[in-house]
Write a structure and sequence with these properties.
Helix content is 29%, strand content 27%. Helix 3 packs parallel to helix 4 and helix 6 crosses helix 10. With 758 residues, it is an alpha/beta fold. It has 20 helices and 37 strands. The longest helix is centred in the N-terminal third of the chain and has 19 residues. The protein folds into four domains: 300 residues, Alpha-Beta Barrel (TIM Barrel); 68 residues; 181 residues, Rossmann fold (3-Layer(aba) Sandwich), CATH 3.40.50; 94 residues, Immunoglobulin-like (Sandwich). The N terminus is likely disordered.
Length: 758
């Protein structure tokens, strides 16, 4: 082991010890300051490098070196085929040589050698184009049954008595169900199917017959829900890199990346083994519940949908992401990548369950693409998943498909600081292109040393991003509010028959407000929070202790003194039971918009209604003048219901429940120019309180900050690495709590750290 590596290892160990065990060592703090002034290569953004031309050793060597000179930490190699350019539909070139050919791997070896020579890293992207999962078309050619599948319903109406014969559609029959007209009784007719033939002696009456088959889809993408199929994809891609380049693993290549693993155009994604998984999870035969995917089947409709979609979410979580994470673990690498629409209001038709998706991923990753502000209210979903799984690094693919006309250096900073303030701490810009000609760049903007518009700003931006990433990676986030992820309500509503389902990721129940709450807390009220998955909430990871809910992680432990239950008709009865226990122990709960009346579990609707009544009281009471219905108990527990959600009413409710929040920003500044905002994040790391304040607007912020505790704060500027003391500091008392009051000013499109020893 060389001296440089020994020093780096010592730095990593000391920082880890200080984070995990609170060892406030002088050495750990010194390392933090040293890395802030001159951030290490590991924190620097690594852009996608789209290979859209004829690769040559000379071109590779020059472009990799130029990437390093621009302050990037390396390249994420992404081969592409010819395709229409975003905005013009002109054909942009693809890569030569052919993907996965011997010549391609020779050029890939050139890339790795060039990166090694320049002290840079390479992110191993796992396919050509996107989404991941085709192996350049080889998967479908070699393993035609390993591709994505969908559930298809074929139905007819027949009057009996008559013997009905029917040739079944192709694919695997998942269920055959008959529903009698009038009684709506459902019969399991699956046993009357033999091979591809169905025959049933229909009794008297009018019957609606439905056949549900799992069929191969029209594309060439792997079945993400089936681990055996994913392993075939891995054998064609990941294994081929391991055969040739394993000597680069852990040094030049430290990370892999997959893209858009989910269902963008096929909301009915399914798999052959779903019935067996359903039975395993719910102890029920799913056959008679299949009609609920298309229509109302009575009181069990919502629970049936929750069970199906939850089963599907489990299969996805344990499918592609887990197989890749396991492979990476075996090869000394870290997995990263994202599903489509990880920020959309309705996950059921795209990634199924945002938090579950990241269960096994080493570096939970999202995308912030299309335009500045797109999906912003959903960014906290991904950082919350990283928090619950105790992952120190959370990444973002960003800038892809931003308009070249409006994209500039300021736009880079605006978007990046909004991402950082929402808990993401590593950037993968989208991106560089091997052929940087304007007509050859299929997806603008060009983020490259060859961009006339932003080349001169890249070094400064990359330094800023690296410093910010370093400060925000690892440690513990101080988040005093937990927001229950209303996944059961989203699942219980969603069905395939809806005529008004016009756009993927948008077909959510009327009144769904969890992303609106995210926006209000972050941008308007300035209170940090973390989304909580209801199925994880009922487990031992979440402990009720001293009027708080403690997320009991090893490193990123969080304590919530307020829990928010967003609007939704459906919730788990088990989740409500734990919320009732929290309330009985003096906990504080806020519900918004719609109180639940239906259970995510079968047969528990009455329990849900009773628990809601015990927590929130008689809802026939009229709201107070400020729009809040309050209920309390003798142990200090408080429960508030806000029928009409607004930033003003939510802020007032929080004020009633917690007079001493972690951060108080006087006058609550709310600039909105340039589609930006003002927000903050608080972490505890390496023996320090680290507060990050970001202003992505065109307005200067002038206010006073009140930070809980008696601090000796310093300003750490991520733009230039400067560290300076704050002189205008006062110590005040608010409702019995000591605060440090700081006069604060932050220029437009700027961010700053306030740092203090614990």
């Amino acid at each position: 082991m060389n001296i440089k590596l020994i020093r780096y290892s010592l730095r990593a160990v000391l920082c880890l010890l200080s984070v995990a065990f609170g060892l406030h060592t002088v050495e750990a703090q010194h390392i933090l300051e040293q890395d802030f002034k001159k951030p290490q290569i590991d924190y620097r953004p690594i852009p996608f490098w789209h290979l859209n031309g004829k690769l040559t050793p000379e071109g590779i060597k020059k472009q990799v070196a130029d990437a390093g000179k621009s302050g990037f930490g390396g390249v994420a190699v992404l081969p592409v085929t010819p395709g229409p350019q975003v905005g013009t539909n002109l054909t942009s070139p693809g890569m030569s040589p052919m993907y996965l050919s011997d010549e391609y791997f020779k050029r890939y070896a050139d890339i790795l050698k060039a990166a090694q020579d320049n002290g840079l890293h390479v992110i191993l992207y796992d396919d050509i184009d996107f989404p991941s999962g085709t192996a350049g078309g080889k998967l479908k050619q070699l393993y035609p049954d390993a591709i994505r599948k969908e559930i298809v319903k074929t139905d007819t109406t027949i009057s009996g008595p008559v013997t009905f014969r029917f040739t079944l559609p192709g694919g695997k029959l998942m269920a055959a169900v008959g529903v009698e007209d009038g009684t709506e009784e459902r019969k399991n007719l699956t046993g009357f199917a033999h091979s591809n033939q169905f025959e049933w002696k229909i009794p008297e009456g009018k019957w609606h017959l439905m056949f549900f088959t799992c069929q191969n889809g029209p594309d060439a993408i792997v079945d993400y829900l089936d681990d055996a199929s994913v392993k075939k994809f891995v054998s064609l891609t990941y294994d081929e890199y391991a055969k040739r380049f394993s000597n680069y693993f852990g040094s030049v290549i430290k990370q892999t990346f997959f893209d858009d693993v989910g269902y963008v155009t096929k909301e009915r994604g399914w798999t052959d083994g779903l019935n067996e998984k359903f039975q395993q999870l719910y102890g029920k035969d799913p056959v008679l519940y299949y009609p609920a995917l298309w229509q109302d089947i009575g009181p069990e409709t919502e629970a049936a949908r929750v069970a199906f979609y939850d089963t599907r979410a489990e299969l996805l979580a344990e499918g592609f992401p887990k197989v890749i994470a396991d492979w990476d673990q075996q090869h000394g690498l870290k997995s990263s990548g994202h599903p489509p629409g990880n920020y959309e209001i309705q996950p059921v038709d795209m990634c199924f369950d945002v938090i579950k998706f990241y269960r096994h991923e080493h570096i939970p990753t999202m995308d912030a693409i299309f335009y500045h502000g797109h999906g912003r209210d959903g960014f906290k979903m991904v950082s919350s998943a990283a928090a619950v799984y105790d992952r120190p690094v959370t990444a973002s693919e960003t800038f892809g498909a931003f308009s070249e006309q409006t994209f500039d250096a300021n736009m880079m900073y605006r978007t990046a600081m909004e991402i950082f303030a929402r808990g993401i701490n590593y950037l993968i810009p989208h991106g560089m292109w091997y052929d940087p000609d304007a007509k050859a760049v299929r997806i603008p903007p060009l983020i490259s040393p060859y961009s006339a518009k932003i080349a001169s700003a890249l070094n400064g931006f990359n330094d800023f991003a690296a410093r910010t990433s370093m400060m925000l990676q690892g440690g513990r986030t101080v988040s005093e509010i937990g927001v229950i992820y209303p996944i059961a309500s989203l699942e219980g509503f969603y069905h395939f028959q809806a005529a008004d389902n016009k756009s993927v990721g948008q077909y959510a129940p009327p009144g769904t407000d969890y992303l609106a709450i995210s926006s209000m807390l972050t941008n308007q009220i300035h209170r940090d929070f973390t989304f909580i998955h209801p199925q994880l909430f009922v487990k031992d990871q979440y402990v009720i202790r001293n009027h708080e809910v403690v997320m009991n992680n090893i490193v990123n432990m969080q304590k919530y003194n307020i829990i928010i239950v967003p609007a939704g008709r459906v919730i788990s009865a088990q989740t409500l039971k734990k919320l009732k226990l929290f309330y009985d122990n003096g906990g504080k709960i806020i519900a918004t918009g719609i109180l639940p009346t239906k259970s995510a579990e079968f047969g528990e609707d009455a329990a849900v209604v009773a628990l809601v009544d015990k927590i929130f009281g008689n809802q026939s009471k009229t709201a107070s003048a400020d729009g809040i219905i309050m209920h309390s108990n003798n142990h200090g527990g408080m429960a508030a219901f806000i029928p009409e959600l607004s930033e003003k009413v939510l802020n007032e409710t929080l004020g009633r429940m917690n007079a001493t929040p972690d951060v108080l920003i006087e006058n609550n500044p709310q600039p909105k120019s340039a589609n930006g905002g003002f927000s903050y994040l608080h972490k505890v790391k390496a023996g320090k309180n680290i507060y990050y304040f970001a202003n992505s607007t065109d307005d200067q912020i002038n206010t006073y900050l009140n930070l809980k505790g008696r601090l000796k704060p310093e300003l750490w500027d991520p733009n230039d690495g400067g560290i300076s003391k704050i002189n205008d500091v006062h110590y005040i008392n608010i409702h019995g709590q000591s605060y440090t009051r700081i006069k604060f000013s932050l220029k437009a499109v700027k961010s700053i750290f306030i740092v203090s020893k614990l």
